[in-house]
Every structure is written in structure tokens, then in C-alpha cells.
Write a structure and sequence with these properties.
Layout (H helix, E strand, L loop, with lengths): L2 E11 L9 E7 L21 E4 H9 L5 E5 L9 H10 L3 E6 L11 E4 L14 H10 L3 H10 L2 E7 L4 H9 L10 E5 L4 H18 L2 E2 L3 H6 L6
Parallel strand pairs: 2-4, 4-5, 5-6, 6-7, 7-8, 8-9
Antiparallel strand pairs: 1-2, 1-3
Length: about 230
């Protein structure tokens, strides 16, 4: 029986990206190949916790929410081969599927919005925080051939987490590798876990997005629900 390690399945409003405000079922896998310094779901990454569920059991959980949109997230859902048959089964049921990925692993999933969150150097943990993982994270975080293939094969959004104004130069350096990326599909999101942090960064990040033709991406779920699990 094919299974996936699942941290949680819940229904909420999408708080980030081009589908912000859309009522969706979220399927969060447990496990990630990176260790972002500002990870806000450590229970699916740093300290992955979850139970193996069959594709049938996952579908049953999703169906009970009676929504049209499903978000496959993590952790990193592309780590697991079973994400392919799960996405295909969801598509066969008529769901709109968003896949949230860090853009380091390619799998031929069924997907209507590939939400790629490339990791900048601001995501790398210090060696004191994660000795072995610091070097592994830095080595793994940028796989341009995977990102290029994902944005070529799927409707996409490129969503960058911005912590400091200095990060903006790195975004431009990163995007130079992908001249085909449309500005209207480039999203810049402030890093933060409370409204004070997010609004302070919005004061300089939103004008930059307007200047470049990018999309400013607020973290609405923090505004709506606070930084709590299951939202």
C-alpha cells in the first residue's frame, strides 16, 4: 500500500500567493530536505512528526471538507514519490491543486499552480543552530534546472521570503537566471511571524514590488488567525 507521512490535513483560507483568500484543504507532509532558519512549520521539517496515511485515507479526509482547492505542502512534498499518484487521484476528482515546493526536486505531478519558494541565503541556518544541516542546506537550496523545468511545465508563482532590504539584490541576481519569469508571477513576501514584523517590512517591500512590477505577498493567515497550527 502506498503511503505518505502526513503531519496534518486541515481546511482554511489560503493566506499567501495568487490564490490568497481561497478556501482550501491543506495536506501537509512531514519531512524536508532543507532546514530554513525561519521555518514556521518545524513539526513538518526540523522535528518532523506525522503518521503514514494511504492515498485513499488522504482522499477521504480531503473530500469531507467539500472544497474545490487542495494545497499539497510540507515540509517538502516533492521528496516523496507517492505525491505523484496522490496528485493524480486528486485531479481525477476534479480538485484544483497547488503544490508548495522549495524548487529543489522535480516530480511529474498533476498541478494547476506550482508555488515555488526559492530559498535565498537568508534561509541558511548558522552552524551553531544546525551544524551539519547548515552546509547541507546551503549546498541544496539552489537547483536552477529544477526551477526552470517547473516554471516551464506548470502555471507558477515564484515566492521569495524577504528579511532585510539587502535581500532584494539577491532576488535580482537569482532572477537573472530565469529571464522567462513573468514579473506578475514573482511574489515578494516579508519574513515574520507577527503583524508588527510584517508591517514594518511592508513599508519598504511593497513600494519595491510596485516599482519592479512584482506582487507584494502579505502573510494574511498571520493577520487572520495568528501564527497557529492548522491555519
Amino acid at each position: 500500500m502506498i503511503t505518505l507521512p502526513i503531519a496534518e490535513i486541515f481546511c482554511s483560507l489560503q493566506g499567501e500567493g495568487l490564490l490568497t483568500g481561497t478556501k482550501s484543504a491543506f495536506v501537509r507532509v512531514a519531512g524536508c530536505n532543507l532546514r530554513c532558519r525561519f521555518c514556521d512549520t518545524p513539526y513538518a521539517s526540523l522535528r518532523a512528526e506525522g503518521n503514514p496515511l494511504s492515498i485513499g485515507a488522504i482522499l477521504q479526509e480531503v473530500d469531507r471538507f467539500k472544497v474545490a482547492h487542495v494545497v499539497l505542502t510540507g515540509g517538502e512534498p516533492m521528496l516523496f514519490p507517492a505525491i505523484e499518484p496522490l496528485s493524480q487521484a486528486l485531479a481525477a476528482r476534479g480538485y484544483h491543486i497547488t503544490v508548495e515546493t522549495n524548487g529543489t526536486i522535480y516530480r511529474p505531478v498533476s498541478c494547476h499552480l506550482m508555488s515555488v519558494s526559492p530559498k535565498l541565503s537568508n534561509s541558511t541556518p548558522s552552524s551553531e543552530e544546525a551544524s551539519t544541516w547548515a552546509s547541507l542546506h546551503e549546498k541544496r537550496r539552489f537547483v536552477p534546472e529544477v526551477v526552470r523545468r517547473l516554471i516551464r511545465e506548470y502555471p507558477y508563482q515564484l515566492k521569495f521570503v524577504i528579511d532585510r532590504p539587502e535581500d532584494l539584490a539577491e532576488v535580482e541576481e537569482y532572477l537573472a537566471n530565469f529571464p522567462e519569469a513573468e514579473p506578475s508571477r514573482i511574489l515578494l513576501m516579508p519574513q515574520g511571524v507577527n503583524l508588527t514584523e510584517l508591517r514594518e517590512k511592508q513599508t519598504w517591500l511593497e513600494p519595491y514590488c510596485q516599482q519592479k512590477g512584482y506582487v507584494f505577498c502579505p502573510r494574511r493567515h498571520i493577520e487572520w488567525f495568528g501564527g497557529v497550527r492548522g491555519t
